[in-house]
Amino acid sequence: MEGAGACFRKELVSKLLYLHFKDDKTKVSGDALLLMAELLKIFVLEAAIRSVQQSQAEDLACVDVDQLEKVLPQLLLDF
Asked: For residue 16, how many C-alpha atoms fall within 13 Å in the half-sphere facing its CB?
């Protein structure tokens, strides 16, 4: 499964991080950006998997935002 699927670009991760930094002098290394991109990828994948499991538990044919909203609180606590 390595290399399969989508990933976050370093530029996007960098912009997201810099939007929330309070100090303009804060710097992020390339390795930190790669690590953060991997964390975001795992987070999104885990959210999708849990939403599918919730949908299956409710005997629904497709995943909707309602299933994501139900699994999101526990997902945020786990991360």
From this structure: 10
Q: Give me 79's structure tokens.
A: 């991360």
State the Cα–Cα distance between residues 23 and 39, nearest whole angstrom. Answer: 23
Contact 28, 17 (CB under 8 A): yes
Structure tokens at 47: 């959210």
Residue count of the chain: 79
Q: Tens digits of per-residue pLDDT, 22-79?
A: 888 999 999 999 999 999 999 999 999 999 999 999 999 999 999 999 999 999 999 8
CB contact set of 13 (below 8 Å; sequence gap of 6+): 33, 36, 37, 40
The alpha carbon of 30 is separated from its chain's Cα centroid by a whole number of angstroms, namely 19
